[in-house]
Amino acid sequence: MSGLQRRRVKNANTGELSGSSQPASPKVPASSIAGVVPDRTNEDHKIAYDPEDMNTSKQNSSAPLLTLMEEVLLMGIKDKEGYLSFWNDNISYALRGCIILELAFRGKIQMLNDPARRRFELNERLIEVIDDSLTGEVLLDETLKLMKNDEGHLSVSTWIDLLSGETWNLMKINYQLKQVRERLAKGLVDKGVLRTERKNFLLFDMATHPVADLTCKDSIKKRVLSLLVARNAALNNNKFFTENVDYKWLRSICLVCGCFAANVLENVLVRLNYDQRDNAFARADELLNEYSEYPFLSQTSSLGVGANVAEEVNKEIEELGNKELQLEVIAAVLSVFSKMDSLL
């Protein structure tokens, strides 16, 4: 019986018969045969990451948990009632100034590096964006985007006016930040400092935000009182204000000035007697005048309090590098605060 048969052809390379029906033996690495453990050090496991996230986490480590705006707002909110005074007209404008301060502290903006800028007042000098990476704070990122997309450079006082809606320029009326106080309060709710409730005010219901974490508010009050009352000020570190925060002393001074300008400082001083309260207000005004100029005056207080403040501020400025253009922005905002009575 004839039939087709498969020829067995010898493979020239291996010497095996390609047509054999025997199963091919598996190839074994030479290192295994020799008893040597195979080297797998080159088999790296790589993990993808977003460089933007790494930069953000690094920036957040040098920034406190609460922004300056949130701290000032928290000082104005009544603990149990959960709302601000209806008669406070200054806080909205002051909060916009605190936004500019926070951006400067985080190294996002600085004065335009122009030698001719010294001919102008601090609040009239132009500012520019030097780092447009996101901060994770909605109001800061929104303001940063407005500054980045603006065609020209504007002054510190102009930006605060635009963010507050205090402008006749119809082309920039959309620069106004809307519902700043409510958005800051919701941010504090997300951080566990406040909680949300609804209360009835005769004709309407309103969302209120009573204080949920009194330890946070008390720690801020202690920091403010230390600068205004104590002979030698001390800043206590906690989870809200860690030791890694940059410009701790200058931040605390700006907090005092922000509360003073926003007309909420009295809430912090409520437990002091009349003379202590009067001296505390005088000290706040003294700090505002000293740090609303650049270079900072940093004088010894005539009231006998905060004897070490000027030394501590100068020390941290030297340690972090003398970032003159950013510090000018801080002084410029404080100079706007010092003139708020004539502005509003």
UniProtKB/TrEMBL annotation:
One of its GO terms (cellular component) is cytosol. It comes from the Eukaryota. The keyword Membrane applies. GO terms for molecular function: phosphatidylinositol-4-phosphate binding. Its main location: Golgi. Transmembrane segments: none annotated. Keywords: Golgi apparatus, Lipid-binding, Membrane. It is a peripheral membrane protein. It is found in: Golgi apparatus, Golgi stack membrane. Residues 1-38 are annotated as: Disordered. InterPro entries: GPP34-like (IPR008628), GPP34-like_sf (IPR038261). One of its GO terms (biological process) is Golgi to plasma membrane protein transport. Pfam families: GPP34. Residues 1-10 have a biased composition (Basic residues). Residues 11-24 have a biased composition (Polar residues). The keyword Membrane applies. Belongs to the GOLPH3/VPS74 family. Phosphatidylinositol-4-phosphate-binding protein that links Golgi membranes to the cytoskeleton and may participate in the tensile force required for vesicle budding from the Golgi. Thereby, may play a role in Golgi membrane trafficking and could indirectly give its flattened shape to the Golgi apparatus. May also bind to the coatomer to regulate Golgi membrane trafficking. May play a role in anterograde transport from the Golgi to the plasma membrane and regulate secretion. This is Vacuolar protein sorting-associated protein 74. It comes from Saccharomycopsis crataegensis. The lineage of its organism: Eukaryota, Fungi, Dikarya, Ascomycota, Saccharomycotina.
